[in-house]
From TrEMBL:
It comes from the Bacteria. It comes from Anaerolinea thermophila (strain DSM 14523 / JCM 11388 / NBRC 100420 / UNI-1). This is Uncharacterized protein. Pfam families: DUF6812. InterPro entries: DUF6812. The lineage of its organism: Bacteria, Bacillati, Chloroflexota, Anaerolineae, Anaerolineales.
Length: 95
């Protein structure tokens, strides 16, 4: 890790703190359950509106449209153009 200091002694590092948010992501072909990582002061929508094209999902389970497990991965990147919707696990309500 590289640490830099400005002229006033303020410390800068290349580490970006993010908080894990368990989510369900729907694409046109799959449902992905996993953890999206967002900056502590931001929301999921802020992560989606960022200029980067891909979002990172950790501890991902990829399901087909019938709910069958297709893949599991500790890490995947998802092109934001394929996202239909995202629901944080904490927002899921039973019906």
């Amino acid at each position: 890790m590289v640490t830099q200091y400005d002229e006033k002694g303020k410390i800068f590092t290349q580490v970006i703190s993010k908080k894990p948010v368990p989510v369900i992501v729907q694409t046109t072909q799959h449902t992905i359950r996993g953890t999206l990582h967002v900056r502590p002061s931001e929301r999921i929508i802020d992560e989606l509106n960022a200029s980067i094209q891909f979002i990172a999902i950790t501890e991902a389970s990829v399901l087909d449209l019938q709910g069958n497990l297709v893949y599991k991965s500790n890490f995947l990147t998802l092109n934001k153009e394929h996202v239909v919707w995202i629901i944080p696990d904490e927002e899921i309500q039973s019906v």
